[in-house]
Amino acid sequence: MPPCFLPASIASQVGQLPPASSRPLPVINLGRLSKDPATRALAIQDIARACREQGCFEVVNHGVSKSVMKGVLEAASEFFETSPEYKELFASTDIRRPIRYDTSSRDGISKARSFLKHYANPLEDWVQYWPMQLPTYRKKMGNYAVELQRVSMQLMDAILQGLGLEPLYLQEKLESGVQFLALNNYPQFSHHGDKVGLAAHSDYGFLTILLQSSPGLEVMPHDENTWTAVPVVPS
Questions:
Q1: Rounded (5°) CA angle 105-110-111
Q2: C-alpha distance across the termini of the chain, in Å
Q3: What is the homologous superfamily of the domain 3-229 according to CATH?
Q4: 17: helix, coil or strand?
Q5: Of 77, 131, 185, 217, which sits 20 to 30 A from 224 (CA to CA)?
Q6: What is the pLDDT of residue 5?
């Protein structure tokens, strides 16, 4: 990543980052959670092991249709293609706002990323704040938010059972908990070797689910000091 896209404290460390790892992340077949008790138990063991040893994993057979995933990526692209004036209607540095647009332009950092973040659960409480100018944005994003909530509950249930807790432990609180959708947009660069992205960071919250539109995601598992590239896995 060119130093102009990083804070000075991080830019000085470029070239000193840990090496990349060739070890792939675990791939969890979520369809196994809906099978017979023995198959479900094995799937929960796999999830628990992945959380304990690496802290992250990929999922397949999650039940979210390709049309819903395509729709949410289309909605995100449509928003970022709107005029600067329209996007500025949602601009704010207040992280408590129900919807917020911003760029990585503060503190002397070039605009290497723009993003839109908004709450999504319960959907009926938050959809009113979402962009209205785009005719299908609310429908496409809402369809994805509903499916994501279902997958989140499925994963959290398995994670908690993997910890030895009862299946219904915290169910009510988790179902009514905050769901936050974050759309990230990165510019394309034509210069050979240029890369754009976020500096090393840890996400906050109980669970983060990522949908990639193109390769580029890297994670650092708990059990090693190397970056692992996460390919886009057809599901």
A1: 65
A2: 30
A3: B-lactam Antibiotic, Isopenicillin N Synthase; Chain (2.60.120.330)
A4: coil
A5: 185
A6: 41
Question: Do residues 28 and 151 lie in contact, with contact meaning Cβ atoms separated by under 8 Å?
Answer: no
Q: Which residues contact 167 (CB under 8 A, 6 or more apart)?
A: 157, 160, 161
> How do the domains of the chain map onto residue ranges?
3-229
Sheet containing 179-185: order of strands: 99-103, 114-121, 179-185
Task: Write the DSSP string, 134-166.
Answer: STTHHHHHHHHHHHHHHHHHHHHHHHHHHTT--
**Whether the Cβ atoms of residue 117 and residue 181 lie closer than 8 Å to each other:** yes
The pLDDT, as a whole number, for residue 22 is 59
Gap between the Cα atoms of 89 and 225, Å rounded: 41
Contact 136, 49 (CB under 8 A): no
Instruction: Supply the pLDDT for residue 105.
Output: 59
What pLDDT, on a 0 to 100 scale, did the predictor assign at position 37? Answer: 96
| Distance from C-alpha of 80 to C-alpha of 165, rounded to nearest angstrom | 42
Distance (Å, whole) CA 216 – CA 114: 16
- What the block records as the tokens of 188 is 């394309």
Low-confidence stretches of the chain (pLDDT beneath 70): 1-22, 105-112, 189-197, 234-235
φ and ψ of 20, to 5 deg: -80, 150
Residue 182's nearest CA partner among 139, 223, 128, 141 is 141
Give the model confidence (pLDDT) of 186-196 as tens digits. 877 645 555 56
